[in-house]
């Protein structure tokens, strides 16, 4: 198996730098969040419904806003993230808001080495699987952490969107739909603050829908549905237009921007 440690180390350093910038950004709107605004989007709220009294594991949670939003809804939450700066801020917010979530700093692929509990729900969203070189160990870990009959839910940017290079502010098709070779990008700013002087150094991988679905099936999950949508809740790609629903789409929409999968451990 290929050693990806260096890739993960570079990504961790970048995400550690992003935390302070994102915490001050309009996109994350931390003050509104502290005052009770949920960070969760319509897709995941509709898919998971009432979570009160359920245990929930949130993978790649950044600095914990979504984890804490689920916690406010009554779920017993654990968040996992690679960034120790992110986890530290998540813990601070949890204490400040007097919630009962827990946070663990580790590579998401190593989750089962750090957490032995099983959960009613495993959740991950928006810009997560592209940081992973292989989805088979990811899906295996999800199955390990789910109770029998438990729900896995992912909502994620569509793999077609990652075929383009957006670094120069234009969309140029550059990468394969399902690319095994690592992709390296280096650019100023972040998706939440494009004017930041911070230099993002990132290694990522592209995963097609077939790979996502088959990895979950192989790990013992039964797919309830796979849906694709033309609108994104985040303005993170070039030249998007805000719709009446508050979502974002392209002027010339030729492919989906978001997909969601709900699955059950059998």
**Proportion of residues in extended strands:** 25-35%
Total number of distinct structural domains: 1
Overall mean pLDDT stands at 95
- The CATH H-level homologous superfamily: Vaccinia Virus protein VP39
So what's the overall shape?
globular
CATH architecture call:
3-Layer(aba) Sandwich
Given as residue ranges, the uncertain stretches (5+ residues, pLDDT < 50) are none
CATH topology: Rossmann fold
CATH class wording: Alpha Beta
Give the fraction of residues assigned to helices.
Answer: 25-40%
Derived from helix and strand composition plus strand pairing, the structural class reads: alpha/beta
């Amino acid at each position: 198996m290929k050693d990806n440690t260096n890739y993960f180390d570079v990504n961790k350093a970048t995400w550690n730098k992003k935390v302070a910038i994102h915490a001050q950004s309009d996109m994350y709107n931390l003050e509104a969040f502290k005052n009770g605004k949920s960070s969760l989007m319509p897709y995941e709220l509709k898919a998971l419904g009432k979570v009160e009294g359920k245990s929930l594991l949130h993978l790649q949670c950044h600095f914990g806003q979504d984890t804490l939003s689920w916690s406010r809804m009554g779920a017993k939450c654990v968040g996992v993230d690679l960034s120790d700066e992110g986890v530290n801020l998540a813990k601070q917010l949890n204490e400040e808001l007097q919630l009962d979530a827990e946070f663990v700093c580790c590579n998401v692929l190593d989750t089962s080495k750090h957490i032995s509990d099983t959960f009613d729900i495993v959740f991950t969203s928006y810009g997560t699987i592209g940081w992973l070189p292989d989805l088979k160990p990811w899906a295996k870990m999800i199955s390990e952490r789910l109770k029998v009959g438990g729900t896995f839910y992912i909502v994620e940017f569509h793999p077609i969107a990652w075929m383009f290079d957006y670094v120069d502010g234009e969309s140029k098709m550059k990468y394969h739909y399902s690319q095994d070779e690592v992709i390296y990008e280096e650019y100023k700013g972040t998706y939440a603050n494009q004017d930041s002087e911070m230099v993002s150094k990132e290694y990522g991988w592209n995963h097609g829908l077939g790979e996502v679905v088959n990895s979950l099936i192989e790990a013992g999950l039964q797919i309830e549905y796979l849906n694709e949508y033309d609108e994104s809740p985040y303005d993170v790609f070039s030249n998007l237009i805000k719709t009446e629903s508050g979502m974002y789409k392209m002027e010339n929409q030729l492919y989906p921007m978001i997909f969601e999968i709900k699955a059950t451990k059998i």
